[in-house]
Write a structure and sequence with these properties.
Length: about 425
């Protein structure tokens, strides 16, 4: 007990977090499993256990068989490596999303596999040294472990700095906690190896990411916010008899286009995992300003007069104002800003002849440029009371004609290339 008090304290903290996490999942009926975080929890618990076990055995070498001591150190160093690797994967996932290509996945796992092999090979050569207050172990296995921690922390730092501007605040706090604690503890442990502070890393990091990212209460609140947004958007849509299903279809088109752009590496600094998620949630709000348009204009069965069209055009500016005044309480500044940009600027044109502000090219926010393509495609492909739906071939041609004039050329090129996926969404909506 004398040599593993810190580990016992850390174990109590992590077990408490695990119990609270399980209980809150049951209370809020969160059925979806968060495999990565739950694996991190398990690895942290096991790692702290072996850290405590080795802290005891290294100070009782005469009483503990050498084979047992080697086995416990092997487990400790391996789980320390695994924990750091899992945290790197976690940071990668919440910033960029895990890679889908097999080669990229192998590249992420390779340093871990190499390190564990080195740890196993050199474990018999582990050295036990006597410190001022406690004994400790060193050797090639331990040095390799330090090197791997440094490698993954360096990689995570690069990803974090690259994605900083597009991350939500709670993710910034979670990642900062991981990096600062891991760097601080590892550096101190290297210069003062008898300190045996390794258990602080999983304990503090797990608490940090739980409070800022993984608490089921946050997930429940986020789900409620999404349902509120969709309900509000549907309420607006129901005022316009001409646009049945418009929200659901345009949101699906936006998601397809944004994910395809991201997978191909276009606008990669902006199209982070969070950006796409916020865009999909913001898309239903693009026509929210129509709630301020008179029914006589909104539901007119024929073509609008010039005066009526000018009034209709104000829905973009009014939509942005509604977002600013209504959705500031959601606690997600990035989403609020994106919802504003989508509502206010989805009628801007690439050549600067759109409304309300006459923005052009990249002056138009990327989210609004994506929304514009989806909005127009659905408008021309859906039936209206004053005209039939246009054939899909003609709808794609209209989008293609607007390349470099109405729409971002990159978006048009990708949209045309995923025609089959767009058609599938369209056909599925007709079947419902």
């Amino acid at each position: 007990m004398e040599y593993c008090k810190l580990q016992i304290g850390c174990m109590i903290i992590v077990l408490y977090v695990a119990c609270i996490y399980i209980r809150e999942k049951q209370i809020y009926q969160m059925k979806r499993k968060n495999v990565l975080f739950e694996t991190i929890l398990a690895a942290g618990i096991v790692g702290i256990f072996f850290d405590g076990a080795t802290a005891y055995t290294v100070n009782h070498l005469a009483e503990i068989p050498a084979s047992v001591n080697i086995f416990l150190h092997l487990c400790f160093l391996s789980f320390l490596d695994i924990f750091v690797f899992l945290m790197f994967l976690y940071m990668y996932d919440i910033t960029r999303g895990l890679p889908q290509k097999r080669g990229e996945r192998i590249g992420l796992f390779l340093p871990l596999l190499i390190n564990i092999v080195v740890v196993i090979v050199f474990m018999p050569q582990l050295e036990y040294r006597k410190g001022t207050f406690t004994n400790y172990s060193m050797g090639m296995s331990a040095y390799t472990c330090f090197a791997m921690v440094a490698l993954y922390v360096l990689a995570a730092s690069g990803i974090f700095l690259h994605s900083w501007k597009n991350l939500e605040r709670h993710k910034q706090i979670a990642i900062s906690t991981y990096l600062l604690v891991t760097i601080g503890v590892t550096a101190y442990q290297m210069f003062f190896p008898e300190a045996l502070l390794s258990s602080l890393v999983p304990a503090v990091v797990i608490v940090g990411i739980y409070l800022n990212q993984e608490t089921p209460l946050y997930a429940k609140l986020q789900k409620n916010n999404e349902e509120m947004v969709m309900g509000f958007a549907t309420l607006v849509e129901n005022r316009d008899d001409n646009t049945g299903g418009h929200i659901r279809r345009t949101t699906a088109y936006v998601k397809l286009l944004a994910e395809e752009l991201r997978s191909r590496g276009f606008y990669k600094e902006q199209l982070t995992k969070d950006y796409v998620a916020n865009l999909v949630m913001a898309a239903p709000m693009h026509d929210v300003g129509k709630i301020a348009i008179p029914d006589a204009i909104l539901q007119k069965p024929g073509k609008l007069t010039d005066e009526e069209f000018e009034i209709m055009k104000t829905h973009a500016q009014k939509g942005g104002k509604i977002i600013r005044e209504t959705f500031g309480h959601l606690g997600n500044d990035a989403y609020e800003e994106m919802a504003y940009e989508v509502a206010a600027h989805h009628h801007e044109k690439w050549n600067g002849r759109g409304y309300p502000d006459g923005l052009k090219e990249t002056e138009i926010p990327l989210c609004a440029r994506i929304m514009a393509v989806a909005d127009v495609f659905d408008a021309v492909s859906a039936k209206r009371c004053y005209r039939d739906a246009m054939p899909l071939d003609q709808c794609f041609h209209i989008i293609e004609e607007g390349r470099g004039r109405d729409y971002d050329p990159v978006l048009v090129d990708v949209f045309i290339e995923i025609e089959d996926k767009i058609r599938k969404v369209y056909e599925e909506s007709k079947a419902e």
